[in-house]
Prior knowledge:
Helix content: over 70%
Number of strands: 0
Largest sheet: none
Radius of gyration: 21 Å
Amino acid sequence: xxxxxxxxxxxxxxxxxxxxxxxxxxxxxxxxxxxxxxxxxxxxxxxxxxxxxxxxxxxxxxxxxxxxxxxxxxxxxxxxxxxxxxxxxxxxxxxxxxxxxxxxxxxxxxxxxxxxxxxxxxxxxxxxxxxxxxxxxxxxxxxxxxxxxxxxxxxxxxxxxxxxxxxxxxxxxxxxxxxxxxxxxxxxxxxxxxxxxxxxxxxxxxxxxxxxxxxxxxxxxxxxxxxxxxxxxxxxxxxxxxxxxxxxxxxxxxxxxxxxxxxxxxxxxxxxxxxxxxxxxxxxxxxxxxxxxxxxxxxxxxxxxxxxxxxxxxxxxxxxxxxxxxxxxxxxxxxxxxxxxxxxxxxxxxx
Length: 351
């Protein structure tokens, strides 16, 4: 999502993935936030849907990471360590600091709190501890991926298809399958591998799919998407008794195997046949993609404004279906604000 400004041969289908994933993130947050705020007054069915829809949108962030893998692991792209630190990492750090401060000021305004000089220390603490608005966690993830990028690029360049598949399978077993079994059953293994995040797996999957090392066409994309979504729906309807809370945590976990399957399927489907886009639509996707990072950064501002300041309840105008127009409205307003932010010198280079 944040690598699109790099001058290189443009891979057009990536714009489509980023734009659709950006809207999916807004849908996820819209249903989640309204479900939490209105949980005491909506029906059980509405409460269930406000949980299920976000679980079905869990593919969005992994698709962002897969897009990053396509771009950043490309051996044709020159990324020196100084460039990595002073362009990629520094940019994300500045964005984090800027928006942590902005969200702090917005929280103070929405809560009616007065500002004081010591708030500067509070803002810096929130920045260092990931204590700001929840969606900023993705930017911390990007910083971590960037810092390890030289090692990842060496692996991508020299490992070869068989080794990459082997590493991917091992990571899926220990970072997805085993934790899933441990949450769902009393099974617990003493074996582990010396890494703790599923996101490098997504990072390399995007690269391998784009390179053709994982040959997955539209049919495979349909099957994987349907299988992942069906598994999530079925598991969300099952009664796991005293393990119900653990299951709900799994459904919202990016390492959960059905989420991995759904994410890969969504990426392949949005890629389409050979990643080819019609010229007219390519321009539309490119335009929207130009502002996708800004949309991601700003959309929660408008959601929180609707909930905390306007106190508008979509459920009073219908059922959970009314949350879709809310998500569309938030997307459009976020797009407009992102366009305006791009006109500000300095800010333009950050978002």
